[in-house]
Amino acid sequence: MEDAPKPSILVVDDERNTREGLARALRGEWNVATADSAASALEQCAKAPPDVLLSDVRMPGGDGLSLLKEVRAKWPGVLCIMLTAYGSVETAVEAMKLGAQNFLTKPVNLDQLDMVLAQALKARNLERENRDLRSRLDKRYGMEGIVGSSPAMEALFDTIRQVAPTQATVLVEGASGTGKELVAHAIHQLSPRASGPFVAVHCAALSPTLLESELFGHEKGAFTNAVSQRKGRFELAEGGTLFLDEVGEIAPEVQVKLLRVLETRQFERVGGTETLEADIRVVAATNRDLAAEVAAGRFREDLFFRLNVVEIKMPPLSERKSDIPMLCNHFLKRFAKENGKEVDGIEPAALALLQAYPWPGNVRELRNVVERMVVFSRGGAITARDVPTAIRDGAERAVAGSALPSASPASSVSPGAPDATGGETLADAEKANILAALEKAGGNRSKAADALGISRRTIQRKLAAWGLADR
């Protein structure tokens, strides 16, 4: 197995002794290049952008902060760490605002530099792994239920990344529509068992007798209508992953047999005497609070502990509303293509309504609503008028804090009207969404428009209307 290539670093400093001293110290673990000016550094970045730029702040012929700004604009993947002998809070804050990963003062403490570089690479590698995970899931399953960049979703991606390569049993808890089965698919797909089968059993849909036969199989004559031997899901999942959906619905008599398989990895078919081995990984899911079910005596405590080796809690959509623009953008493209529709994004007023609505049905409900809006759209962008009445009403109630009169299907929402309590209006929410997206995009209107699923022209028009055209 070949060694992983060394990361690359470009050391920029007009002082020769400092530049060459840092290069010598770093050369063992890094591929080091040096530059004595900002202009020389930009030339080298243009040829081959390094993983890390380590630059002095004060240099003749172009300061380090200007270099930082240009490198971050042209090569956003380059991690930038700034050095100065004239450290100040103001300079450090300015460097961080421009995108610096960290800020160190001279003379450089090499141990501290090693730690800062290691932390920077670790953060960058984790971001790349999560991005790769999203890409792999997108290609195989689409983004439904697992798309997002909110802190809750980043934490979910990190958990999947850590858990997937192991053999640990996983319990996924969350409300209906949050994407539990998709997470189970992700764990399987990113595990050493990816080449094996992924077998799902929806436990709530079967009676205890049928579920037992479905899980373990049965022998010919084991019960009425058992006219031949049949393999169960444990056998069919051999070498792969068995997904037990709604495991909290399993009857007590089946819970006992499931516990034995998890403990011994052995089972018998219904009506059989031959003991079979189960080389499978179990991922279970439930929309119930299994700990509460154990306390109520409806679920075995020992089985709960066997299933709950690793616990993953799916965040409801109401707790990650910042992901709604990204989800809407994806669903709009998907359903427009499926239905042969030309849809030019979604207007901020409509997006404000969707973000104000509480989404009790989670991502599944949002997907269905977006599909409906696409099906009934007449071209152009989705507007507040296109949002279903029930969603508009729910959004208005959520914003106002009290029930508002229902809008007729033919009427458009009046997002500028004050709510019943004199609080935030839907127009306020729309404005806040756009300004927040602009801030996150560093003022780049095209990036903000992409994140919101609207056109750049719409943002320009809205800013002009708010007297913020120069923002």
Lay out the secondary structure.
Blueprint lengths: L7 E5 L3 H11 L4 E5 L2 H10 L4 E5 L7 H11 L4 E6 L4 H9 L4 E4 L4 H32 L9 H13 L6 E4 L6 H10 L8 E5 L5 H9 E2 L11 E2 L1 H4 L4 E5 L6 H13 L1 E2 L8 E2 L3 E6 L3 H6 L5 H7 L2 E4 L10 H16 L3 E4 L1 H9 L5 H15 L3 E3 L6 H12 L25 H15 L4 H8 L3 H10 L6
Parallel strand pairs: 1-2, 1-3, 3-4, 4-5, 6-13, 6-14, 7-10, 10-13, 15-16
Antiparallel strand pairs: 8-9, 11-12
Q: Provide the CATH topology of the largest domain.
A: Rossmann fold
Query: What would CATH call the architecture of the largest domain?
Result: 3-Layer(aba) Sandwich
Number of strands: 16
Give the overall form: flat
The proportion of residues forming helix, as a percent range, comes to: 40-55%
> What is the assigned CATH homologous superfamily of the largest domain?
P-loop containing nucleotide triphosphate hydrolases
Instruction: Count up the helices.
Output: 19
**Tally of discrete structural domains:** 3
Strand order of the largest sheet: 2-1-3-4-5
- What average pLDDT do the residues reach? 83
Q: Could you tell me how far the N terminus lies from the C terminus, measured between alpha carbons in angstroms?
A: 53 Å
Task: Report the CATH C-level class of the largest domain.
Answer: Alpha Beta
- Percent of sequence in beta strands: 5-15%
Query: Segments where pLDDT lies below 50 for 5+ residues?
Result: 141-145, 402-424
- Major pleated sheet: 5 strands, parallel
Radius of gyration: 28 Å
Class by alpha and beta content:
alpha/beta
